[in-house]
Amino acid sequence: MAHSKKYPDGRHSSPGDPSLVSLQEGAQTVGVCVKTLRNWISEGRLTGYRLGPRAIRIDRNELFALARPLADSHTRGVA
């Protein structure tokens, strides 16, 4: 399988499979608070996945997809 990830239990993921991370890891990765990620889940901007009674995970790729480039400084006059 090209470009797949092998899990400890022997499963393989394909490029389209979600890469689930904890809220703490996701928040640290993009530099926001865990509460911000919880708000984004509540607002429907980000999908949360419950893994048991308390554990919530998010798709790392979906988190990065929320990022938007800033306007080009040459066209907007931003210094």
Automatic annotation (TrEMBL):
The lineage of its organism: Bacteria, Bacillati, Actinomycetota, Actinomycetes, Mycobacteriales. Pfam families: HTH_17. This is Helix-turn-helix domain-containing protein. SUPFAM superfamilies: Putative DNA-binding domain. It comes from the Bacteria. Residues 21-67 form the Helix-turn-helix domain. Residues 1-14 have a biased composition (Basic and acidic residues). InterPro entries: DNA-bd_dom_put_sf (IPR009061), HTH_17 (IPR041657). Residues 1-22 are annotated as: Disordered.
